[in-house]
């Protein structure tokens, strides 16, 4: 099987790396748009989710802790935690042909087309990159171009995940760009500040 390059996932992983690159000790306990979680928990959750997507495909190497009950403590080596998780995810998705119709996912919806499975993993990484960035006063790593590519995925998968992965959608506003529209659809206020 030929390895497949998934630019959408690569962009989302780059956003997640960018949002965490400069985190320091003072950042881990900061509150985030994920109301119940601090920055450490969002990073642990995001890493766990990437591992969960990989494990669904490969049957191996799942999350090291429950992604929906992450520790409040800063990871011992945050860069290693993130790089390991996004690396496992990227390698797993590289084995998925672009025309695959039933790619296993950890989502309640189960298998999806390759496009939507990759999009779901990318959505998770990109939105949590935004969560971490705004929680720590950094610029958004979620450009409108990336958000525009993720919006169809969010529209397709969000409803069964509301209440435990996504909050109720917020009403759109006329001036919303694609980033704001995506965030509102996922129950996040694009103007959230710490």
Automatic annotation (TrEMBL):
Mycothiol-dependent maleylpyruvate isomerase metal-binding domain residues: 9-133
Domain of life assignment: Bacteria
InterPro entries in the cross-refs: CHP03086, DinB/YfiT-like, Maleyloyr_isom, MDMPI_metal-binding
Name this polypeptide is given: Mycothiol-dependent maleylpyruvate isomerase metal-binding domain-containing protein
């Amino acid at each position: 099987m030929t390895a497949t390059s998934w630019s959408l996932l690569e962009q989302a992983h780059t956003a997640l790396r960018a949002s965490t690159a400069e985190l320091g000790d003072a950042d881990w306990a900061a509150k985030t748009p994920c109301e119940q979680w601090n920055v450490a928990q969002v990073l642990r959750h995001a890493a766990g989710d990437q591992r969960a997507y990989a494990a669904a495909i490969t049957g191996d190497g799942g999350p090291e802790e429950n992604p929906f009950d992450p520790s409040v403590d800063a990871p011992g080596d945050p860069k290693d935690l993130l790089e390991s998780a996004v690396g496992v995810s990227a390698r797993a998705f590289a084995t998925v042909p672009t025309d695959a119709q039933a790619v296993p996912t950890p989502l309640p919806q189960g298998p999806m087309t390759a496009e939507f499975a990759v999009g779901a993993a990318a959505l998770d990484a990109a939105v949590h990159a935004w969560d971490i960035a705004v929680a720590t006063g950094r610029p958004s790593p979620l450009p409108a171009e990336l958000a525009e590519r993720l919006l169809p995925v969010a529209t397709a998968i969000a409803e069964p995940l509301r209440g435990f992965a996504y909050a109720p959608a917020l009403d759109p506003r006329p001036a919303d760009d694609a980033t704001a529209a995506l965030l509102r659809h996922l129950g996040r206020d694009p103007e959230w500040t710490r």
